[in-house]
Specification:
Fumarate Reductase Cytochrome B subunit; 51% helix
């Protein structure tokens, strides 16, 4: 079998090893990590965010390793073997280029570069959103607005990546039919058959040890970066923040953090305690005023958490019910109505049944555990 460094001289019809083991491992590992990220991001709920983040970071690491191998790998792994000038790409797309490329053709090379770029942007916008909006990870010092913009851009890029992957798959099928070779199989075996008229390649020697050293250095730098400032500031439960509020409110229900409602909503609640969701929860005027002042001074506009920002907008007809807000509905849209009325949850207002940090108002996605149904 002919080695990848001598494809220029391979006799017609002889098997040629085009894709080395590292290129193939990169390709299929990237397929697996992106598939996992897509399923956990588009289909599964927030409780799978840790797996989503892990798969995204793996995809980013794979792209970084592939970039290194693009400079230090063998002939067809090199960027110079498949990154072509615009004129050559256009010629290939319009049928002017009749020769066959053993490695990536000009259009395939451009697509590969685009896919790698989008994966890299996805990783960075995801980390920006995780830091700015959720105050977790290496970018937790980013302003909330930048984090939220990062999450929105992350969703757009994710959709773009799916479209690009679909286009890549369709193009591979069409090219396989046009060239009468199974491109997907060659990415498994690494083997193609040499043919007359194949484009000659710029022969290159691989430097695996140097590549491994560079990748190890990059991995270490990334690991150190990801470990820095990875935890959000500690948020104390409400019961530890205000003794009077805790004493009066926890007697009947969860002590909801003041950052979950706007000042308008809290005034509505505290002004109607004589008919508090079907119960008389009236307080003496001094205690009522004291709790009202505390709630308003710690309302949604004062906290840098994602739930606070989403609950900050006052409604035209405030009811004081957290579960009737648009923000609550958006945050729980992936769950069925039945989920909230089965044991041990029983109610939409029983936040602590699924959120371990409910009383802190933080509602970290890493603290979500949807309770399993238990016999009544």
């Amino acid at each position: 079998m002919t080695d990848a460094t001598s494809t220029r001289f391979a006799p017609s019809g002889e098997p040629v090893r085009v894709w080395d083991i590292w290129v193939r491992l990169f390709h299929w590992s990237l397929v697996a990590s992106i598939s996992t990220a897509a399923v956990t991001g588009f289909i599964l709920g927030a409780q799978y965010i840790a797996l989503h983040i892990a798969s995204g970071l793996i995809a980013m690491a794979l792209v970084a390793a592939r970039i290194v191998w693009g400079f230090l790998g063998p002939t067809h792994a090199r960027f110079r073997d498949f990154l072509r000038k615009p004129a050559e790409i256009l010629s290939h797309l319009t049928g002017g280029d009749t020769g066959r490329h053993l490695g990536h053709n000009p259009a395939g090379g451009l697509m590969m570069l685009g896919l790698m770029a989008v994966v890299g942007l996805l990783a960075h916008t995801g980390l920006a959103g995780l830091g700015g909006a959720m105050k977790t990870g290496p970018f937790l010092s980013l302003p909330y607005a930048i984090g939220e913009a990062g999450l929105e851009l992350h969703e757009v890029l994710a959709l773009l990546l799916l479209v690009m992957i679909l286009a890549h798959v369709v193009a591979a099928i069409l090219e396989s039919r046009r060239s009468h070779e199974n491109l997907a199989r060659s990415m498994v075996t690494g083997i193609k058959e040499s043919r007359p008229g194949d484009h000659p390649s710029h022969l290159a020697r691989a430097y695996p040890r140097l590549a491994l050293l560079v990748i190890a250095i990059l991995a270490g730098a990334i690991a150190v970066s990801l470990r820095q400032n990875t935890h959000a500031p500690a948020f104390a439960p409400v019961v530890e923040l205000d003794e009077i509020f805790a004493e009066e409110c926890t007697a009947c229900h969860l002590a909801y953090h003041p950052s979950l409602l706007s000042a308008v909503e809290w005034r509505e609640i505290m002004g109607g305690l004589d008919e508090h969701f079907g119960e008389d929860a009236s307080l003496d005027s001094e205690t009522n005023a004291r709790i009202t002042e505390w709630l308003i001074s710690h309302d949604a506009s004062t906290a840098q958490t994602r739930p606070a920002h989403q609950f900050a907008g006052a409604r035209e007809d405030p009811t004081g019910s957290i579960t009737e807000t648009r923000a609550w509905a958006d945050l729980h849209e992936s769950l069925s109505e039945r989920t909230f009325f089965r044991a041990p949850i029983y109610s939409k207002s029983n936040c602590s049944a699924c959120h371990a940090d409910a009383e802190t108002g933080w509602f970290s996605p890493f603290q979500i555990r949807i309770s399993k149904e238990t016999p009544r």
